[in-house]
Amino acid sequence: MLIVTYDFTNDKVRSQFSKFLKRYGRKIQYSVYEIRNSPRVLQNILNEIELRYKAKFGNTDGILIFSVCERCEKKIVRYGHHAQEEREVVFF
Hints:
By secondary structure, the protein is an alpha+beta fold. It has helices at about 10-20, 40-55, 70-75, 80-85; strands at about 1-5, 25-30, 30-35, 60-65.
């Protein structure tokens, strides 16, 4: 799993990056995404960021990526709305 947080001063770049991340994961805060996928897809995401977005950084822009291993993922504590997202729901 990856946790990706970002800050771009350029609205267009910020919007493009948000749409890019939305294809792979879910938004958990305004500029924070949680991405759960195969190691290959996660590596492709990192490559895309390096090749496509790194060049668009201004002086105050940045992306922070946290790689969370399975063991550490089990230690994540969620409260409020985020706690409800992890529960499985069954519809009849």
